Amino acid sequence: MNAADLPFFRYHPDPVATGAVREGSEECARCHRRTGWMYTATFYTAQDVSGDFCPWCIADGSAAEQFDGDFSDTYGLDGVGMETVREVTRRTPGFRSWQDPHWLVHCDDAAAFLGEAGPTELARYPDALDRLRADLREDGLRDPDELERFLACLGEDAIALLFRCIRCGTHLAYVDAS
Ligand SMILES: [Zn+2]
Ligand SMILES: [Zn+2]
């Protein structure tokens, strides 16, 4: 089965590119099928889960339901509807990061996670860079030279996590540091 046949996740449109889903011949811990694709990122549950899930058991909510778990935390999902929160946390692949991963919000909806971005990728998204600069200034990085140096070094001790608003298309990012 090729990647085009994977279920579509509007809040995580290319989980193979982000590394959240990879090719793998293991059995899914929920449906026990070997679909050829396995989920690799976070799942928070108090129960024992032996192995990983196939993307289909994420998409239909059955993995989250059976193990009463979440793929992502609700942190960051302020001002979006309960249905959206459930879709992101229980029916969308999460992602790994150094700090607790969280979802960005734009136009009152969760944004789509596009993956990690270094300086080269970020240069293509001035809208995301503007927001990053504003956030970093707010976090105390006031010296403009220092701020630009920090952005130029993304990919080393810190990385930007890139999102795109599914409503207006604006790109957003936040910094994840080790
Ligand atoms: Zn499955
Ligand atoms: Zn928007």
UniProtKB/TrEMBL annotation:
User: Which InterPro entries does this UniProt record tie to the protein?
Assistant: UPF0167 (IPR005363)
Q: Per the similarity annotation, which family is this?
A: Belongs to the UPF0167 family.
Name the chain's protein: CbrC family protein
Q: Which organism is it from?
A: Streptomyces tendae
